[in-house]
């Protein structure tokens, strides 16, 4: 017989089956106690005393064995056999107890109802039919020996009808409960799927999301927020010690929620973040939703637009500027060659020459930005490439400029345009040598190549022993046209960072222990295509 005839399965079916065992054991114990105390003859009008007493012991013994051996209603046949056996034994007790006056017919109705919770359809109705037929047939057989029993036919018929009514009613209620349970499970599954989808979307969002309570305890943080704040896990932690700048913006927002919060930068080389705060009410508790947007790309795009416009403007007027600039430079050169000029006049002519060259260099750099070609990344072995770069640099550098090279590990690869990498490293090395020579008789720069132990990405550090970058200038050194030198254009570091970004590398500055500067390039993974 198919197991689909079982009406209730799983944990709920196991509980009902255990209750069915307990119900039968309680009846068996009560009957055996009556028999053992000889109260059965006093309380009941027994038609067959030996049969009643023997059936009581058999009923208890069999139910104990069934309860010990059959624990779960996973198969139809054992459940059906238990229900049918229970009905047959109770029918025998019904006969031995004298029919309807014994009250055992009511126990049969309860057994039929419980069995129809476990069985569905015709199998449950079959149990009800067995109970009804058993009571009617045994009443007829009992009336042959005891004519006064003939008056019980109406009661027996009513009990039989109640068996069918109980079976049909319980099956109907069970079907409705199962439909409601299935609908609830489906709704719960839909809610769980929707929650999983929402969590997935939340974790994949590029906007950082934090939810904190009134004590600034983090209730929720997605992966973007953890990455932007450079944290591993914030759930359940107080936000204050992990991001003091963000807490300050939150306090300012509490004081005046109409003002736009100021942007912040949690790391020296990290992105610029724009926080937004939204109040939430959940179950009478006040929470704060914090949105963190990375505005570095927006600022970079604005900077690009500015430089493109500047490049177009410069390209348009370069010819007009270069012609008079060339004439001024040529005239100053002729003046310097004159024998009539004295020392102060020669100095003025030299100043004209220097500033003419500087203006021409500025025009060249801006034109280079406007005409910069797209990067063409190639798979590079940085160890081999740096050895070759150092050899070429040393072959042309004067003795007062020294380049040191330190490489950790064997082969370290990345993807980058070799020409643009050469331009970046040359610019950083020349800057380092220039600043190192200001404090030392010999300018020195160290190139240190290694793998970052946290990200496993290639890292190149360009170090010098110069004066370093003052703290008040750190946020400006990569801005275009920002320079602290009279002869500088302020475009070298900006161009270097732009070239790195176009190759999915990142250039930033960090202070060096013991003095000096350290410009650090974090390269892209070699398998990452640009």
Automatic annotation (TrEMBL):
GO terms for MF: phosphorelay sensor kinase activity
Catalysis: reaction(s): ATP + protein L-histidine = ADP + protein N-phospho-L-histidine
Domain Histidine kinase, chain residue ranges per copy: 316-527
Uppermost EC category: transferase
Any Pfam family hit: 6TM_PilS
InterPro entries attached to this UniProt entry: HATPase_C_sf (IPR036890), HATPase_dom (IPR003594), His_kinase_dom (IPR005467), HisK_dim/P_dom (IPR003661), HisK_dim/P_sf (IPR036097), Sig_transdc_His_kin-like_C (IPR004358)
SUPFAM superfamilies: ATPase domain of HSP90 chaperone/DNA topoisomerase II/histidine kinase (SSF55874), Homodimeric domain of signal transducing histidine kinase (SSF47384)
Entry protein name: histidine kinase
Origin species: Phytopseudomonas punonensis
